[in-house]
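Homework help thread (please don't just give me the answer)

Our assignment gives two proteins as sequence + structure token strings and asks us to describe the second one. The first is just a warm-up. Here they are:
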Amino acid sequence: MAKLDELKQSLIGGKAAQVKELVQSAVNEKMAVKEILNEGLIAGMAVVGKKFKNNEFYVPEVLIAARAMHAGMEVLQPLLAESGVEPIGKVAMGTVKGDLHDIGKNLVVMMLKGAGFEIDDLGIDVPPEKFVAAAKSGAKVVAMSALLTTTMPGMKDVVEAIEKAGLNGQIKTMIGGAPVTQSYADEIKADGYAPDASSAVDKAKELLGLS
């Protein structure tokens, strides 16, 4: 579909006004909302994610593309609920207690939204009990970010708090951030680790059995 391809390319190029216009025009032409979402916006963000992974795109390009995605979603959001299009899963995401960095977290949030997830963005400096509360209110994946080695133990606290709450097995935990590694994930018994925002989408899908 030429229009959806144009929408996808506009999103990759970060043209917010054009994306909004094309989504509105597709809606006016009675195109299926799910089709506009999946083959236009989500397909575009998938390309952005791939380019980011391959170092063809950097953080500014991703942020600009994400802004274009938001512009399109403003038009689609009210229609998605009406047409019964369900998100593919719910992820609660936050930077752990003591850590005030949010650029990495925000990138992951945008990429997950761009892949069709519903996001409960818990913000920064999030204590374990807040992650547990989010898990109890429907999140299937609890994702934690840290930029400082000194705040990484906060991730272990969250994993343990989820276990204490009896949510092990029902809730998947995922960690990431500059100093974080796969071996640290193994050590604290987190279910998954992602080295970057694009891989976080793949990992969340894998943890929920969607990939």
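The one we have to describe:
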Amino acid sequence: MNYPNGIKKGIDNKYITYKNRGMTLESDLNVTNQYYIENNIAYIYKKPTPIKVVKADYNSKGLRVIKEAYYSEPSTTDYNGIYKGNYIDYEAKETKNKSYFPLSNIHEHQITHLRHIESQNGISFLIVRFTTLNKTYLLSTKDFLDYIDKMKKSTIPISYFESHGYLIKEKYIKRVDYLEIVDKIWRLS
């Protein structure tokens, strides 16, 4: 029997799962956000990276093709939008490491941006996926900043995500249903 989540027994009679093979956190979030938009739950989208076009040509179909461009300014965070009248802004990251998340994955200007959102009482957080463990956590900006300001370390151990973050359970349609956790943390339900 083929189960929807791809679980079956292998040769050694252990369960094998094929879910998430080839999927990334970003694509899972995009599918989830599209569900939120289509069902009028929230309007949250991936922010485009700002670029400055230097050279462009037209192809045979008359469409403009960018030949040369550069990043015009550093991007802030990955996603933003509105949910229940509240501004939401978050950064999404993946790591293959099993025991910690390297802070080198987040740039200083992104941390500054999250500080600004937090200071204006916006809803902001990190979504971090430990790909090898197939675990995805939401960590509020408050807890993230508290850790980096007090600990002065170059990594955040997974134990910090386990104790201060929220494990996001994987679902079928809303693959990374982070708004369920946002409702709990910020008491929006």
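TA reply:
I won't write it for you, but here's a hint about the kind of observation we're looking for: Helices lie at 25-38, 108-119, 141-151, 158-164, 179-185.
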